[in-house]
Every structure is written in structure tokens, then in C-alpha cells.
Write a structure and sequence with these properties.
With about 270 residues, this protein is mainly alpha-helical. It folds into 3 domains: about 80 residues, 434 Repressor (Amino-terminal Domain) (Orthogonal Bundle); about 120 residues, no CATH class; about 50 residues. It has 14 helices and no strands. Helix 4 packs antiparallel against helix 5 and helix 10 crosses helix 12.
Length: about 270
């Protein structure tokens, strides 16, 4: 007579319930794990783990175990699937961190990486495969890089997709976008904006553009900007005066100074936004 089985582990109750149900099916069938293994493609040790309460296997493995123990399982398949899904949900919940990410306090790139890691932990530490299944813009290699190195992707859509995979909804994205603009800068060229408009959802792009413009506006020094613009306007007026007086050489010189003044305004705005 073999040794008695170790009691089912109910540390995670839902997983324990599934294991207990599997054991009851095997007891009714009268099969040993060795005999059950001969009927399936799984080893006896793996089958024991499925019914231990410490491990949740794949759905095909669980279904095969139960089907070999009870040929009429079709009548109870919905019950088995419900137990399995409940156990999987409970395991994910058990991995969730209670730490709430606070992107609004981010000041550096490293700080943003830590906040993303906290979001991943709060989502139940989804695997790289799960992250990729939830968003195709984040390959497994990129997800691995973000999680292991607590790094921030260089591509904004990938950043947003990773957060979406970590259950950060569009309505909760604003502080994350502000954190991105704070450490990456809010000045973008037309090519980047055009691409973002294509790959983001309309709701994401609308929030992105609103947050970006707010960040740009907050970073401007209004007095300094107006001073530079006034100088450029004065030079433009000199150009108009020279043209009216038919002083072409002076007009060209004033126009060059005007363009230079406008370039200084543009450079200043970009510098303050970066």
C-alpha cells in the first residue's frame, strides 16, 4: 500500500478547491497516478502536482487529468472550467502589490522606471507572454528589458501599451503622460506627431495632445517669451519701414535680423520645454 497523499494546500483557497475536486475524481476512478500517467502524455509527478493545491497547471493538463478519471466529464466540464478560472484569478490577485504607483512624483528617468515596475507589480506581475498578448506593440524582449532593468522605453506608444497591459486605463494615463514629458521632453516634430496619431487610439491621442500642450504651457516663462517676440516684431517693423523707403539693402538686413529673432524665440521655447 502506497503512502497517503499530502493534504491539499489551501493557501490559495480557489486553487485548493480545484485540486480537491481533481483528487475526488481520481479516487472515484480507482486509478493510481502511474496508471493515470499511462493514459495521458503527462508524468505521474506532474499529475500529482496538479492535485496538490500548490500548483496550477495549464487548462489542457487539468482537463486531460479529469477526463481520464471520468468519461462522462462532458456533463461537468463547465463546473471544472469555472473552478480553473477562479483559481487562476485568485493566483493573479495573490501576486498583486498593495503599493500604488505615484508617477506624479517622478523627477528622473530612473524614477519613472521604478513607477512602471510598481504598476507591473500592482497588476499581478503579468508574464512577458501575457503582456505581449495584451498589446502587440510591446515585444517580449522589450517587456523583459522594462521589467528586469526597470527601464523606460524610448517609444511613447510602447510606454502607453505597457501601462495598458498593466491595467492602467486611458482615463488614468494623464499623470503617466506628465511624467513622460517631464523626463523625456514635450517638444516633438511633425513626423512623430503624425505617427502617434496613427498608432494611438483616438482617446489616447486626445489625452496625449492635451497633456503635452499643458506641459509646454507650464514650462514657458511668459515674460521672457514676450520680450523675445517684441524684439522680433520691432525688427519686422523696421523691415517694413525700409521697404517703404526703398532701402532694399537695409530691408534685407532687417529681415535677416527678424528671422534670427524668431529663431531665438523658437530656440528658447524648445529649451524650456525640453
Amino acid at each position: 500500500m502506497g503512502r497517503p497523499e499530502v493534504p491539499v494546500d489551501f493557501t490559495i483557497p480557489a486553487r485548493g478547491e480545484l485540486a480537491s475536486y481533481l483528487r475526488s475524481l481520481r479516487y472515484k476512478s480507482g486509478l493510481t497516478y502511474t496508471q493515470l500517467s499511462q493514459l495521458t502524455e503527462y508524468s505521474s509527478s506532474h499529475l500529482k502536482r496538479l492535485a496538490s493545491g500548490t500548483y496550477l497547471g495549464t487548462w489542457p493538463a487539468v482537463y486531460t487529468y479529469a477526463m481520464c478519471c471520468d468519461n462522462e466529464l462532458d456533463l461537468f466540464e463547465d463546473q471544472l472550467r469555472a473552478l480553473y478560472l477562479r483559481a487562476r484569478k485568485a493566483i493573479r490577485a495573490s501576486k498583486r502589490s498593495s503599493v500604488v504607483p505615484k508617477p506624479q512624483y517622478v523627477r528622473t528617468l530612473a524614477g519613472l522606471g521604478e513607477a512602471m515596475y510598481a504598476a507591473w507589480e500592482r497588476a499581478g506581475r503579468p508574464s512577458r507572454r501575457v503582456i505581449q498578448s495584451r498589446c502587440f506593440n510591446v515585444p517580449r524582449s522589450t517587456a523583459h528589458f522594462i521589467i528586469v532593468n526597470r527601464a523606460v522605453p524610448t517609444d511613447l506608444p510602447q510606454y502607453i501599451d505597457f501601462l495598458n497591459a498593466c491595467e492602467v486605463s486611458t482615463k488614468d494615463l494623464e499623470p503617466w503622460l506628465r511624467a513622460w514629458f517631464k523626463v523625456r521632453g514635450a517638444t516633438l516634430d511633425r513626423r512623430q506627431l503624425s505617427r502617434y496619431a496613427r498608432v494611438m487610439t483616438p482617446a489616447e491621442y486626445k489625452l496625449f495632445e492635451k497633456t503635452r500642450m499643458d506641459c509646454l504651457a507650464e514650462s514657458y516663462d511668459e515674460d521672457k517669451t514676450m520680450e523675445l517676440l517684441t524684439d522680433a516684431i520691432d525688427l519686422a517693423m523696421d523691415t517694413v519701414q525700409d521697404i517703404s523707403n526703398e532701402k532694399k539693402h537695409d530691408a534685407l538686413f532687417s529681415m535677416a535680423q527678424t528671422l534670427d529673432g524668431l529663431a531665438r524665440v523658437q530656440h528658447y521655447i524648445r529649451q524650456t520645454a525640453a
